[in-house]
């Protein structure tokens, strides 16, 4: 069941989202250690959302769907802020505090990743739907659900760690000017995600990390 969750989670990871781009950009700009802190923050958020879904929080979050306009603005502002921050960072302009201490830098990346992962709180409704489907069509229950969910979190850790390694390798090998260009691309992509979040018409159209 763990492998099935891992396989399913890997399929979801193929839909590249803002968190993936953030991890890559962090690795290019700050190295693998800071990027891996972001990976851990993302995995923790995913795990928390999956746990809520398994524990039967669907009814609660279904009510939150009625507040779609609020969540749309919330997600848009978070994504837009980080997109603009990445773009300005390529010109050495920092919207967020810049720290030289490795530990603080890693903590900063962790918090940023959590915020990005939470930019669409309705993701938990997606997970609730997935587990409801597994219960109804495959008869999953109890321990099987937790193992399947654990496999999904493991997929996040595995895939994003690979992205972090790739970004760190690129950051170490390419000229500084190219790194700045990559930050521009990441920032522009995050802004596009922000626009898509704001303009989507249905609360059921949940963006994946």
How does this structure look, described?
The chain has helices at about 1-15, 20-30, 30-55, 60-65, 70-90, 100-115, 125-140, 145-175, 175-200. The chain has one domain. It has 9 helices and no strands. It is mostly helical. The chain is about 80% helix and about 0% strand. The model is unreliable at about 100 and about 200-209 (pLDDT under 50). The longest helix is centred in the last third of the chain and has 31 residues, at about 145-175.
The profile of the biggest β sheet is:
none
Structural class: mainly alpha
Uncertain runs: 98-102, 202-208
The tally of helices reads 9
Provide the succession of SSEs. HHHHHHHHH
Q: How much strand content do the residues show?
A: under 5%
Distance between the termini: 22 Å
* Rg calc: 17 Å
Number of domains: 1
Query: How many beta-strand runs?
Result: 0
Shape label: globular
Give the % helix.
Answer: over 70%
Short account of what is shown:
With 209 residues, the chain is mostly helical.
Topology (SSEs and partners):
Blueprint: H1 2-13, H2 18-30, H3 32-54, H4 58-64, H5 68-89, H6 102-117, H7 123-138, H8 143-173, H9 176-199
Helix pairs in contact: 1-8, 2-3, 2-6, 2-8, 2-9, 3-6, 3-7, 3-8, 5-9
């Amino acid at each position: 069941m763990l492998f099935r969750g891992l396989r399913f989670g890997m399929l979801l990871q193929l839909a590249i989202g803002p968190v993936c781009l953030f991890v890559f950009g962090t690795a290019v700009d700050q190295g693998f250690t800071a990027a891996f802190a972001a990976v851990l923050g993302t995995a923790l958020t995913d795990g928390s959302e999956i746990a809520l879904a398994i524990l039967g929080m669907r009814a609660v979050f279904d009510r939150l769907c009625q507040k779609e306009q609020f969540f749309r603005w919330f997600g848009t502002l978070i994504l837009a802020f980080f997109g603009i921050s990445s773009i300005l960072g390529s010109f050495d302009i920092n919207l967020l505090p810049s720290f030289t201490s490795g530990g603080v830098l890693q903590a900063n990346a962790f918090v940023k990743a959590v915020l990005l992962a939470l930019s669409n709180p309705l993701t938990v409704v997606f997970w609730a739907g997935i587990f409801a489907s597994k219960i109804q069509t495959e008869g999953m229950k109890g321990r099987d659900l937790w193992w399947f969910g654990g496999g999904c979190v493991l997929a996040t850790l595995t895939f994003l760690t690979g992205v972090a390694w790739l970004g760190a390798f690129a950051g170490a090998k390419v000229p500084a000017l190219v790194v700045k260009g990559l930050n521009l691309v990441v920032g522009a992509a995050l802004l596009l995600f922000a626009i898509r979040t704001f303009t989507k018409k249905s609360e059921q159209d949940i963006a994946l990390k």
